[in-house]
Design goal:
By secondary structure, the protein is of the alpha/beta class. It has a single domain (12-227, 259-267), classed as NADP-dependent oxidoreductase domain (TIM Barrel, Alpha-Beta Barrel), CATH 3.20.20. The protein contains 10 helices and 11 strands. A 7-stranded parallel beta sheet has the order 3-4-5-8-9-10-11. A two-stranded antiparallel sheet has the order 1-2. A two-stranded antiparallel sheet has the order 6-7. Helix 1 crosses helix 2. 46% of the residues are buried. Mean pLDDT is 93; it is low at 1-9.
Length: 298
């Protein structure tokens, strides 16, 4: 099991070239009552859990295990996900990095509407500061680019807050190489958070570009590998060879993919959390990496 005491420098990335984080983080999105009815069905991420006790236990256990990067967003449960993190962990450990995202409206449980008006982005940062009970947000990522406003204006709003000391690092989500480079002409970009996992590799070129640029690549849905987890698959075979879970193999593949990849698996289970954080200790040999790297969903 990976703990703060057993982590090594190989497990660490310098976010923005200065902020050290262990590479397996935690995505807090799932710590919600997804449908508002207690079923956890769907992905509406609309309300905080009616009874937050289990979510608090998961967050506190994550920190105990040495997790240093927590990912949330103002759009998760209309800000209640941020407030939950504060309730569980404030005052924060000095080495904890909380990443949040701004730039999405949630007018209903099924709607995610990008809004990049600079004034709105500034307002959401201010609300994030309140909900997370801090004077500076460690990492603020633009949740989605809004085509209604120039990219430079959207990123510029976050750059202005960075200059004011309210934001330490600026990041992006679901962008292209060209959009990343346009943003970097406005302000330093510390991270990019795009959809990527063993079964979803459309952002290979961006991942490699981020490596060259020293930008962290944070793959969301790192465990959503679908049919690749089926019995008899390469993932299943490698897991059996190593005495590991298929989720651990999927995470380990991401960690082996490049040193700037920071997966943020989410879960509502302490047991699964412990399994996920232990993936950092799973060594894949060249043959296993080759089999995993060339397999594709049928």
């Amino acid at each position: 099991m990976t703990t703060a005491a057993t982590a090594t420098p190989d497990d660490v990335f310098l976010l923005g070239g200065e902020t050290s984080v262990r590479r397996v983080g935690f995505g807090a999105m799932r710590l919600t009552d997804a449908t508002g009815d207690g079923t956890q069905a769907g992905a509406r991420i609309w309300r905080a859990p009616a009874d937050p006790a289990d979510a608090v236990l998961v967050l506190r256990r994550a920190v105990e295990l040495g997790v240093q990067l927590l990912d949330t967003a103002d759009a998760y449960a209309l800000g209640e996900n941020e407030a939950l993190i504060a309730a569980a962990l404030h005052p924060y450990p000095e080495d904890l990095v909380i990443a949040t995202k701004v730039g999405h409206l949630r007018p209903s449980p099924t709607e995610w509407v990008p809004l990049g008006h600079p004034a709105y982005l500034r307002q959401q940062v201010e609300l994030g500061l309140r909900r997370l009970r801090t004077e500076t947000l460690d990492l603020v990522q633009l949740h989605r680019l809004d085509p209604a406003y120039p990219l430079a204006d959207q990123v510029g709003a976050l750059a202005e807050l960075r200059e004011q000391g309210k934001v330490r690092h600026v990041g992006l989500s679901e962008v292209t190489v060209e959009e990343l480079e346009e943003a970097r002409r406005v302000t330093p970009i510390a991270s990019v958070q795009n959809h990527y996992n063993l079964a979803e590799r459309h952002h290979e070129a961006l991942l490699d570009h981020c490596l060259d640029a020293g930008v962290a690549f944070i793959p969301f849905f790192p465990l959503a590998i679908g049919d690749l987890a089926r019995p008899g698959s390469a993932v299943d075979a490698v897991a059996a060879e190593l005495g590991a879970t298929r989720s651990q193999v999927a995470l380990s593949w991401l960690l082996h993919r490049a040193p700037h990849v920071l997966p943020i698996p989410g879960t509502t289970s302490v047991t699964h959390l412990e399994e996920n954080t232990a993936a950092v200790r799973l060594a894949l040999n060249d043959d296993q990496l080759q089999r995993l790297g060339t397999t594709l969903a049928p």
